[in-house]
Design brief:
flat; 8 helices; single chain; about 250 residues; about 80% helix; disordered C terminus
Length: about 250
C-alpha cells in the first residue's frame, strides 16, 4: 500500500460534494425561481426610480403633473410586480403538494446516481487503500467527537451555549461592549468589562468552533460511507440471501 495512493484517494474524496437537491431542480422549479428573482429585481428597480423622484421632490424642487403621474404608475407597477415575486413561492408550494410523491422519488433517484458516480470514480483504488482510508477517517471522526463531547457533552449543547452567549452579550450591554472596551486600555475602572468581554469571546468562539467541527465530522462520515459502498462493489463474495446485491459498473 502506497502513501501517495492514499493521499490521492483523500484528494479525490475532498473534491466530492454531498448531494444538494437544489442543484437538481426540474425545469418548472427553475422557471418559477427565475421568474421570482426577475420580478423581485424589476420591482426593486422601479422602486429605486420612485425613490429617486421622491428625493428630487424633497430636496431639489417640485415635480410637474406629468412626472407625478409617472411616479404614481411606477409605484403601482413596483407593488404589483413585487407581489408577483412573493406569490411565486406559493405556486411552487402548491406544485410540490400535488407532486410530492414523484418529487421525493426523483430526489432519491438523483441522490442514488450522484453517490454511485462517486463510488465508481474511487473504485479504481485498491481495496486495501480503501479499507485503510476508511478506518483512518473513522478514527479521525471518533477523535473529533470525543473532543466535542469532552467540552460540551450532548450534540445540542454547542447550540445552547451559543444562544446563551448571545443572550449574555445582550444583558451586559449588547455588542457595543466589545467596541467600547477594546477602544480603551485596561484600567481598574474597566477591568470588569474586560473580564466579561474575554469570557464571552472565549465561550462564543468555542461554540462556533464546535459547530464547524461538527460540519467537518459530517463530511468525513459521508466519505466513510462512500468508501464503504465502494468496498461493497469490489467485494468478490457473492451476495447472501436477504443482503443487498452488488452493483456492476
Amino acid at each position: 500500500m502506497s502513501l501517495e495512493t492514499c493521499k490521492q484517494l483523500l484528494s479525490e474524496l475532498d473534491r466530492m460534494e454531498i448531494y444538494r437537491p437544489y442543484k437538481h431542480r426540474q425545469p418548472f422549479e427553475q422557471g418559477v425561481s427565475t421568474f421570482s428573482n426577475f420580478t423581485l429585481g424589476l420591482g426593486l428597480f422601479l422602486f429605486s426610480i420612485l425613490a429617486g423622484l421622491a428625493a428630487y421632490q424633497e430636496w431639489l424642487g417640485e415635480l410637474d403633473a406629468g412626472t407625478v403621474g409617472f411616479a404614481l404608475w411606477v409605484g403601482l407597477a413596483s407593488m404589483a410586480i413585487t407581489t408577483l415575486s412573493l406569490l411565486s413561492p406559493l405556486v411552487l408550494f402548491i406544485w410540490y403538494c400535488r407532486r410530492w410523491n414523484h418529487i421525493v422519488y426523483r430526489d432519491l433517484e438523483n441522490a442514488f446516481e450522484h453517490d454511485l458516480d462517486i463510488v465508481e470514480s474511487i473504485g479504481q483504488f485498491p481495496s486495501e487503500v480503501l479499507s485503510y482510508t476508511k478506518l483512518w477517517l473513522q478514527t479521525r471522526v471518533s477523535r473529533m467527537e470525543r473532543r466535542m463531547s469532552f467540552l460540551f457533552g450532548s450534540k445540542t449543547a454547542a447550540f445552547s451555549l451559543l444562544f446563551l452567549s448571545l443572550n449574555l452579550v445582550d444583558r451586559v450591554g449588547g455588542f457595543n461592549i466589545f467596541s467600547r472596551t477594546f477602544s480603551h486600555e485596561i484600567t481598574a475602572a474597566n477591568f470588569v468589562d474586560w473580564l466579561a468581554v474575554w469570557g464571552l469571546s472565549f465561550v462564543l468562539g468555542l461554540s462556533l468552533a464546535t459547530l464547524v467541527m461538527r460540519r467537518l465530522t459530517a463530511r468525513y462520515s459521508y466519505q466513510v460511507e462512500i468508501i464503504g459502498l465502494a468496498l461493497e462493489i469490489q467485494s468478490p463474495e457473492p451476495a447472501k440471501s436477504g443482503s443487498r446485491p452488488h452493483l456492476e459498473s
